[in-house]
Amino acid sequence: MESRSCFSEALPYVAMILMEFLDVGVTTLLKAAMTKGASQLVMIVYSNAIAALILLPTSYVLERRRGPLTFRLLCWFFFLGFIGITVMQYLALTGISYSSPALASTLNNLVPVYTFILAVIFGFEKLNIRSLSTQARVLGTLVCISGALAATLYKGPSLWTPSSSIPLHLSSHHPAPGSVKRKNWVLGGVFLFTAGICVSFWNILQAATLKKYPWEITIVAFNVLSSAFQSAIVTSILERRSPSAWKISSNIELIAIVYLAIVGNVITFTIQTWCIRKRGPIFMVMFKPLGIVIATISSTFILGDTLFLGSVIGGIIIVAGFYSVMWGQAKEQKKIEAKQDDGLELGSSSQRLAQEEKSRDQDIQDEELCSSSHRRAKQEKRDEIQDGEVSSS
User: Fold this and answer.
1) Can you give the residue ranges of every domain in the chain?
2) Phi and psi dihedrals of 122, rounded to 5?
3) What does 46-81 look like in DSSP terms, one character per residue?
4) Per-10-residue mean pLDDT for the chain, 393 residues long?
5) H/E segment holding residue 308
6) Cα(345)–Cα(20) distance, rounded to whole angstroms?
7) Collapsing DSSP states into helix, strand and coil, what is residue 161?
8) How far is it, in rounded angstroms, from Cα 19 to Cα 121?
9) Which helix (H) or strand (E) segment is 159 a member of?
10) Alpha helix (H) residue ranges in the chain
11) Which ranges of 163-250 would DSSP assign to H, the alpha helix?
12) Contact call for residues 123 and 223 (beta carbons, < 8 A)
């Protein structure tokens, strides 16, 4: 029993560490596929189509008692898919193609910061600058932004240049001329910044949607289905002069598409949902900085990217700011939970007092009823005695 309890306690930690490895695997494979000339939009079309084919039957089986899918709700899912998947994935893949998976993982730690800023802008969060938790979040936000600027704008001297890398070009096909983008750290950072904002905006909209329609798998299934249609239309327009872009020309491209569909859109979502239910959202995002280390190692030794001082400094600054934001978020969450507990205790105390008062009133009524019955019985007895005396006389 004790070993089973220890395993149950350790499982969320193992799951989150595994998820960070899987996430970095997605970006590393996609970078390798794009280096071979794969189109970002085509990979988005195929991967989301595969994910939809997996998630739609799954949602039907696991969420059979879900609410009705109205036309308005389907239109909303279409919008969520556009913001959170189609646009976000295209920006992220373009950013990775211009930079590296390591920079993508570094800037991915800014998502809680973006979410906090957007929540303040849209009125979901109210700033109390005297509160220590608010001060920690504001300070952490500024530190994270500084670290992101350092990682994006400042390369610095190279710390490590690998002499060789693990070959991921599992095909003899060569990339089409002009299909591989030259490294542009700043432009890649801008694309990744914007992708992070899309993720944060999508998280806020998803949270609002789940309150009205609490069936997560169904929502994500229709999101990826919408994204598959959207990206197919956009790709048909942009790639109309090169039909060969739809052709999967290398083994690494096929592996990247299937991996993105199954791991990126299905497995990681399942792990995230399970960990949020077990330990809460703050526990889940606390493991994000681990992705920086994993991505840096994979970019350097697998893709052969050079490790620069600016990336290391920026990553350290972002991690410091990230944990400051998350500490403030945890403190704020505890305050909210304490207020809710106080409200429940106050409500239960009020109910208990009302019940006691009602019980006392009932006891008084019972006593009055008993005394009234007793008086009536005495009066009836006296009347009987008087009637008996009259009869005898």
Assistant:
1) 10-330
2) -90, 5
3) HHHHHHHHHHHHHHHHHTTTPPP--HHHHHHHHHHH
4) 72 85 86 84 90 90 86 92 90 88 81 80 77 85 84 77 54 43 77 89 81 84 91 87 82 90 83 72 72 79 77 86 83 75 56 62 59 60 58 54
5) strand 307-308
6) 40
7) coil
8) 31
9) strand 158-160
10) 2-35, 40-62, 71-81, 88-98, 101-108, 111-121, 132-153, 185-212, 216-238, 251-259, 268-279, 281-285, 288-301, 309-392
11) 185-212, 216-238
12) no
CA distance linking residue 387 with residue 351, whole number of Å = 53
**The two three-digit tokens of residue 173, written as one number:** 């096909």
In 10 A of CB 288, how many CB atoms? 22
Amino acid (one-letter) located at 182: R
What token pair was written down for 39?
A: 């189109």
Instruction: Give the count of beta carbons closer than 10 Å to the beta carbon of residue 372.
Output: 10
CA atoms of 55 and 266, how far apart (whole Å): 7
Identify which of 330, 334, 321, 333 has the alpha carbon closest to the alpha carbon of residue 288: 321
Q: For residues 121 and 44, is the Cβ–Cβ distance under 8 A?
A: no
SS3 at position 304: coil
> Are 296 and 311 within 8 A, CB to CB?
yes
CB 320 within 8 A of CB 111: no
Dig out the tokens for 96 from the structure.
């990775």
Length of the chain: 393
Which residues have CB under 8 Å from 275's CB, separation 6+?
12, 15, 16, 19, 283, 284
What is the token pair recorded at 157? 């001297």
Q: What is the largest CA-CA distance in the chain?
A: 136
User: With 0-12 CB in 10 A as exposed, 13-18 as middle and 19+ as buried, what is 237?
Assistant: exposed
pLDDT of residue 178: 41
Q: Judge contact between 31 and 245, C-beta under 8 A.
A: no
